Amino acid sequence: MISSLGSRAGSAPGPAATFNELDLMECVLVLNERGRMGREKLSQSVSLGPGAIRTALSRLRSAGYVSTTAGGCELTPKGRRAAEDMGRYIRWRGAVRDGVKGMGQTCYAVCISGKTDVASKSVRYRDAAVKEGADGAMIVVYRRGRLVFPEDNSACESRQPSRVWGELAAKASPREGDVFVVACARSRLLARRGSMGGAVAIIRDSKDPSGSPGSHPAR
To answer: Exposed (0-12), middle (13-18) or buried (19+): which is 31, by Cβ within 10 Å?
Structure first.
């Protein structure tokens, strides 16, 4: 789904989109975690306006991922399979309360299951986050009980002191080798898009069909 959702869902007829592939992915993930939801509640959960969520759901319904009734919208079996596929790689995602100094007002992070070496491509992954709207982004890895910058294995707390590192460890309960994309922007929507954009770039580079790591919902 990570590779195909945007192209498939985006091919449906309708108004010009004010959302992107990452927003469609977020809709699927949220519906998988919370079950049937009304359109307004889903709109608030993914930070999209009423018009955008209406069109996004229309695209997802046309692609076979979502069904809608008077009682709300929910995932189809195809949608649940897609969410499970994403959950093999995305262990946790959520807002970062404390933020990172000098990187934007709102921060959001995605934790990706380990078994990938990001050190040589961390700049590219940060660029992917910025391309999706982040003002700044960081790629960090959980190694030997601490979060480190992969380029030189330096401890995040020592190099860039912030309460965010403890917050990430507490919320995500990372495992050895897990990778975080931390993106900051002027809004939650752009911060989320940024972190997910960086995460998707990492997953596409390192996807291993034989792996089946677990996932945790956003908090």
So the answer is: buried
Output the CA–CA distances (angstroms, integers) from residue 24 to 61, 91, 140, 201, in the order listed.
Answer: 11, 18, 26, 16
End-to-end alpha-carbon separation of the chain, Å?
23
The per-residue DSSP string of the chain comes to -TTTHHHHHTTS-SSPPSS-HHHHHHHHHHHHHH-SB-HHHHHHHHT--HHHHHHHHHHHHHTTSEEEETTEEEE-HHHHHHHHHHHTTEEEEEEESS--TTS-SEEEEEEE-SS---GGGHHHHHHHHHHTT-SEEEEEEEETTEEEETTTTEEHHHHS--THHHHHHHHH---TT-EEEEEEESSHHHHHHHHHHHHHHHHHHH--TT---------
Q: Please name each of the domains of the chain with its CATH number.
A: 5-86 (1.10.10.10), 90-206 (3.30.1360.30)
CA 48 to chain centre: 15
The token pair at 212 is: 């089946």
Cβ burial 55-75 (10 Å sphere, 16+ → b, else e):
bbbbbbbebebbbeeeebbbb
In this predicted structure, the answer to whether residue 212 has a pLDDT above a threshold of 60 is no
Query: What is the average per-residue pLDDT within 19-27?
Result: 95
How far is 143 from 91, CA to CA, in rounded Å? Answer: 16
Mean pLDDT of 38-53: 96
State how far the Cα of 47 lies from the Cα of 14, in Å rounded to an integer. Answer: 20
